[in-house]
Description:
The structure is a homodimer.
Chain A: E1 6-10, H1 14-25, E2 31-35, H2 39-48, E3 53-55, H3 58-62, E4 67-70, H4 77-84, E5 93-96, H5 102-110, E6 117-119, E7 121-124, E8 144-147, H6 155-167, E9 171-174, H7 177-201, H8 212-218, H9 225-234, H10 236-258, H11 262-277
Parallel strand pairs in A: 1-2, 1-4, 2-3, 4-5, 5-6, 8-9
Antiparallel strand pairs in A: 7-8
Helix pairs in contact in A: 4-5, 7-10, 10-11
Amino acid sequence: MAGFEHTTIIGVGLIGGSLGLALKQRGLAKEVVGVGYRESTLEAAQASGAIDRWTLDLAGGVAGADLVVICTPVGMVAAKAAEALPAMKPGSILTDVASTKAAITEQIEAMLPDGVAFVPAHPMAGSEKRGNESARADLFDGARVILTPTEKTPADAAEAVAGMWRGVGARVEQLDINAHDRIVANISHLPHLIAPAIINAADEAALPYAATGLRDTTRIAASDTQLWIDIFKDNRANLLGALKQFLKEMESASFALAHEDWDALAGILDRARSRRLSLEPDDDGDSSCSGKST
Amino acid sequence: MAGFEHTTIIGVGLIGGSLGLALKQRGLAKEVVGVGYRESTLEAAQASGAIDRWTLDLAGGVAGADLVVICTPVGMVAAKAAEALPAMKPGSILTDVASTKAAITEQIEAMLPDGVAFVPAHPMAGSEKRGNESARADLFDGARVILTPTEKTPADAAEAVAGMWRGVGARVEQLDINAHDRIVANISHLPHLIAPAIINAADEAALPYAATGLRDTTRIAASDTQLWIDIFKDNRANLLGALKQFLKEMESASFALAHEDWDALAGILDRARSRRLSLEPDDDGDSSCSGKST
């Protein structure tokens, strides 16, 4: 089979729950065990069919697993790995779904026991919604999953994890782990640092008049604070680099505006427009989102 | 009637075409005349029912009108007013739909002939889409229309224009003209300056991986360049003020990140989150836009 007979998911939220549903519905796991810390969440996941059984005992939950998938927020991945690894059986594989890879991978590889492989992975799927109640079996259908194997990652383990993701409908590709972290700093983490500044800069009196301009650019500012602080911590150096590049771009735009250099400003807008249009077509419903503006 | 018997619309694009459709469908004008410079556009507008007849001759098109609505992009409003005003009949009213108000209004009021009133107006409706082919009769249904009368605006003229907008479903309110321009600099024009910088700062290699973070924050970077250059020109001083505030916010976030002051950064994200959530509920389809993210 493309999956693993005994799969344990640590953290049965949106990603973990969706993975469980997809594995079960596609027959890619004989048994999916859920590990968490809140009984009600785990019971709901079991009721939805995302997991066959659950336990609060992490070591016990991973003991018989062929594959352990850590689906917790970024800030908890290394700690959960530290708990799981000593209990995992020889020949088994640990993987994760964190959106930053280098720091976590370095920590996990430093504590890998003999006979257990770690495959760093990042499924680029999810939504502002969190939690198992938003989980759905088709979340990974057509989604991109990036594997960032290192020289310590056995090729057969990476291939087995890739096969599991392809089994649930994802497009799997590999990236150098540092290139991955630079890319996500650029296209995901930086906007999460800018959007809060945009909405915090708005006058209290102006907020009630917010239309598309402000709404679109600040939608992600409603994200969970601690989740993003942990991501910023983890990918701080790359984020600082991306931020520097952004501030340079802002300086060019500010300078053109201040000096009424409209040709320069038009050049900036033209370049941005053509880059933005190059992102289309969009899986994410851009067209349905063309809302009102001022 | 809540409208005007003879209404002329200069510029039959998204806003002008939608206004024509709404006026005709609700019986708020006996005749709607369209003025433009491209025959095919005007013919399409006539075929769609947005206008009863059209002309390329601006002076002729406005001569018999009780109300003239300039619906061109910001950069052309004052020039069109200069052409229209000498041909307008005593007792008639000129209004516009520009998203910046002070500079345009000052220019138009300086050339107002006796017996013709000008009512500055800004319907906060529209979309990234432009052109008459995107026009729809319900565009203003529930939309906000801001009137920014000055001491030169006759109260009865302002009330008549307000009645017309209420007639097509809009919520009409008044704002001080300078307060209006500061507000739109804040919540509309500033994001249109930042979004281009975000996408221009992204590495070429990172763009293919763009998910919600980048897509949402840069959707408006696909807007028309010249349209926005004209708006930036017109509202430059307020935009510079809003930009200064934004750069101050970015500096706080950058400082916290650089110095690993996670408590300060969490405070920034918390404040942004609560301000963003305070914008809900959202008419503009936020919930349907919760796409994939990294």
